[in-house]
Amino acid sequence: MRRTRQTTLGLIAVIAALGLTACGSDDDEPAAANGGGTTAAATAGGDGVAQAKAAVAQAERTTGVEFPQPDEAFDPGTGKVAVISCGQAGLNCKQGSDDVRTAAAAMGWKASPVFDGEFAPAKQAGYVQQALREGYDAIVLVSIDANSIKAALDAAAAKDVPVACVMCANKDFPGVIDVTSGGVADGTAIADWIAADSDGKAKLLAYDDKSFPIVAERLAAMKARLGEVCPDCTVEDASIPTTDLSKPGPPTWTAALAKYPAGKLGYVMAPYDPFAIPFTKTAEQRSRTDLKIGGYDASPDFVALIAAGNGPAKVTTAAPFPYASWGAMDQVARVKAGKQPWESTKLPVALVTAKNAAEFDEGFFSPDDFDYEALFKRLWGKS
């Protein structure tokens, strides 16, 4: 991977400060991943597991990966872009925002200082309104739920100010162009790994965090894929409040460990890596060697636990945040220049396992054989 990233635990404290709550399931036994219905894979014998194993091999690749990209060069001209971060205490939000500013400079645009949304929709909406008052030509959001700031974004659309969002799940939200994996690739890759690793017989506990729409997209994709390739796999749905991140355990997880003694579960999927880290450490402290724990977003601390290879931490996904940030800048300038946006909602992700974890110390998917900066500079006439 091309660039070094700094690990931060600030995401844990800031997400916890959101104060959102959710409740877990009370069912004692996991429900079928496909809702109990028959799938094509259910009649295919072991073919589903074979398909999953082949898919895992593909998802673990860190070179030779195809990225959706624009193919039409254009003159971006000059302009001002407002960069609004979901929260600068989060590694992905901070680095994604910094990358947007770098892309803007390469394009010849002037970027605002990063507006820190502090994981608070009211603050994020206020920055959108500020950008409109101050005459910015475009807005780039970084990992922000558009529906939570709808009125402000409606105002941007009314003024024909283009808006793009880095690594978001704002499906069909008018006026916002997502540059993202969308969550589907992430959830699908995790499902393939679970099916392959369990040889088609996983008992899985999967957590949602309702404060981030992309988590729900990942869960839906994971369960849909399991229904195809692993009809004998079972999934227990659960939710965990973000406030748990600031508490030992966390409490919802320690309750689950009591509910499911050794032998009742094999696999646990956290909503993202900042939860997967304490899940793993608590499981280790309680000698729960029967569990295999996964997450999303390739937080460097969790990747290090996977690389060690001797504990419950087994899998996560890495998203191409750097490419998404440059792509978002391209999209808003392209629209401002009267061009059509390109399809940017199905960016690839990489599956991170012990096999390739050493390649993800920076925490993002940025293949060494894909020079996205050179690509965009060429399209902008800046090479």
From TrEMBL:
<dbReference type="Pfam" id="PF13407">
    <property type="entry name" value="Peripla_BP_4"/>
</dbReference>
<protein>
    <submittedName>
        <fullName>Substrate-binding domain-containing protein</fullName>
    </submittedName>
</protein>
<dbReference type="InterPro" id="IPR028082">
    <property type="entry name" value="Peripla_BP_I"/>
</dbReference>
<comment type="similarity">
    <text>Belongs to the bacterial solute-binding protein 2 family.</text>
</comment>
<feature type="signal peptide">
    <location>
        <begin position="1"/>
        <end position="22"/>
    </location>
</feature>
<dbReference type="InterPro" id="IPR025997">
    <property type="entry name" value="SBP_2_dom"/>
</dbReference>
<keyword id="KW-0732">Signal</keyword>
<feature type="domain" description="Periplasmic binding protein">
    <location>
        <begin position="98"/>
        <end position="339"/>
    </location>
</feature>
